[in-house]
Design goal:
By secondary structure, the protein is an alpha+beta fold. Among the domains are: 143 residues, Immunoglobulin-like; 94 residues, Immunoglobulin-like. It contains 11 helices and 26 strands. Strands 2, 4, 5, 7, 8, 9, 10, 11, 12, 13 and 16 form an 11-stranded mixed sheet that branches. The chain has a 4-stranded antiparallel sheet with strand order 17-18-23-22, with no helix packed on it. A 4-stranded antiparallel sheet has the order 21-20-24-26, with no helix packed on it. Helix 3 packs across helix 11 and helix 9 crosses helix 10.
């Protein structure tokens, strides 16, 4: 017998999306009649909708859109069984979903600026919900001590907010201060995951992406079903223990390369869940066990920080995978909501991870941002570390995400103040190359940048780099022939940094261009 309930994301302290129809959903016995009512802080009825639970024992209602407000109350009644659920302290404002892998999951407490962040004044208008991390149905032990605070709405400074996404937290604070309405962030992310885990299986049934399904089917052959279950559950039992997480946690605060090597020598690969029905990275796995628990909760848009696990030989199809993910999510929500992406940061090696084809992933990310409607991206080529896959300046990442939202979604600032400088044109004269950029009025050189020049196929680097207004001038050691073939690239290697920034502190986005002499 199914228990009458609302979906687990609905709870005290939640935030509903303003100015869009509001979807409320849950479960009940087939044929049960469900009534959903919403009241304002004066106790006045705002809207009331009735529904009937379907043959899948699911019910859903759509309430009329509302303006921003606080202290509302929702009453959900099963008029067939006379059961009632009351949800209090309901706000209406802006709701964003924060998806991706570890750099989005990255907790507040690991951030470089945590000491400053935790001493900021409490903001009663920002709220957070972490979707429980379940690798498979029935997996309920992953979010224990040290990574708790999942499965319930948190207010700023509540116990558990230290385990919320640092970039998403920064984003929430910044847009709330500008919009002056309640803001809710739904964290739906998991470290080390490929985008394949976050899409419906139908996305992977195309010719170009089917190799993910083929790899999975091949992996299943390694064990019998019984062996797979036994090995996997034993591994999760070890992984999910608080003591095991405490051993791993120093890596997230940051260890140098020597300390990482010592960690690997002492701990090896640790417990490993084989790729199969209990692995969080299986195709469509987290889409089914996490994302579908949220759909179709009304949102303003999605933040996406991911791609590290789709580098290497998978990089060549990342544009198709990412654009397909965006399309699938929008279809599920029946809403062409905005996606705001974070481009991969500079990184060399961390534990056994390497940066193979990171440059190609960045190119694919830029391609999606440039060609898919209502998708935007911030580049962070000035933030990173050769020996750490997790940049620690996540408050700055959140600031850059917020700039894009405030510009393209809320129309509060011009795009030129939110976008990274982008290459526009260049010319060659004598021994100087002058490059012009859009989204910049006052470029400055802050530190070394990885800039390469090719002259008739011979690679070199500039002798001097200067910036003024919206131009960068590269000086070479000798004059360039008028008929020479010249190309220039910024940050085009797998590990590369760019420290030429505009007046908003945003670095030039990676590019490669052929110039007219």
């Amino acid at each position: 017998m199914i228990r009458f309930s609302v979906a687990e994301i609905f709870g005290n302290g939640m935030v509903l999306q303003r100015n869009k129809p509001i979807h409320i959903f849950g479960q009940a016995e087939e044929g049960d009649r469900v009534r959903v009512s919403i009241y304002d802080y004066h106790g006045r009825l705002i809207d009331e909708i009735n529904s009937v639970s379907d043959r899948l024992e699911k019910w859903q209602v759509t309430l009329a859109s509302m303006e921003a407000s606080k202290d509302n109350k929702i009453v959900v009644e099963n008029t067939s069984s006379q059961e009632k659920i009351v949800i209090s302290n309901v706000s209406v404002g802006e709701v964003w979903l924060a998806g991706g892998q570890s750099n989005m999951e990255f907790f507040n407490k690991y951030d470089k600026d945590w000491e400053r962040t935790k001493n900021l004044p409490k903001n009663d208008s920002i709220h957070f919900y972490n979707v429980p991390q379940r690798a498979f149905e029935g997996h309920v032990t992953h979010n224990g001590e040290g990574r708790d605070g999942y499965g319930k709405w948190l207010n700023d400074k509540d116990q558990g907010y230290e385990n919320f996404s640092a970039p998403a937290y920064s984003f929430a604070r910044r847009i709330q201060e500008k919009l002056q309405v309640p803001v809710g962030i739904i964290g739906c992310n998991w470290g080390g995951t490929t985008a394949v885990a976050w899409v419906p299986e139908t996305v992977l049934q195309t010719k170009e992406l089917k190799y993910y399904l083929d790899e999975y089917e091949e992996a299943l052959k390694a064990y019998t079903k019984k062996e797979m279950k036994t090995i996997s559950l034993l591994a999760w039992e070890k992984i999910d223990t608080p003591s095991d997480y405490k051993i791993f946690e120093p890596l997230l605060y940051g260890l140098d390369r020597e300390e990482q090597l010592e960690y690997m020598e002492k701990n090896g690969d640790g417990p490993v869940v084989p790729l199969g029905p209990y692995n969080e990275n299986r195709p469509a796995g987290l889409y089914e066990t996490m994302l579908q628990k949220v759909i179709p909760y009304t949102i303003a848009g999605a933040l996406w920080y991911q791609g590290e696990s789709d580098s290497g030989d998978r990089a060549k199809t990342y544009d198709l995978l990412l654009s397909s993910l965006i399309k699938a999510w929008r279809k599920d929500w029946d809403d062409e909501f905005p996606f705001i992406l974070v481009q991969l940061a500079p990184f060399g090696e961390w534990l056994a991870c390497t940066n193979d084809d990171y440059s190609l992933v960045r190119q694919k990310q830029q391609q999606v941002a440039d060609t898919v409607e209502n998708v935007y991206m911030t580049s962070i080529m000035d933030i990173g570390s050769y020996y750490d896959i997790h940049p620690k300046e996540k408050m700055e990442v959140g600031r850059r995400l917020a700039l894009l939202a405030l510009s393209h979604v809320y129309n509060l600032i011009p795009a030129e103040q939110a976008e990274n400088p982008r290459f526009e044109k260049g010319n060659v004269s004598g021994n100087t190359i002058t490059l012009t950029f859009k989204n910049a009025e006052n470029l400055s050189v802050f530190d070394k940048s990885d800039i390469a020049i090719s002259i008739d196929g011979e690679n070199t680097i500039p002798e001097e780099v200067t910036a003024e207004n919206n131009t960068v001038t590269l000086t070479t050691t000798k004059d360039i022939s008028p008929d020479a073939k010249v190309s220039v690239s910024f940050g085009w290697d797998d590990y590369a940094v760019i420290n030429i920034k505009n007046e908003q502190g945003l670095p030039i986005a990676p590019f490669k261009a052929t110039l007219c002499n």
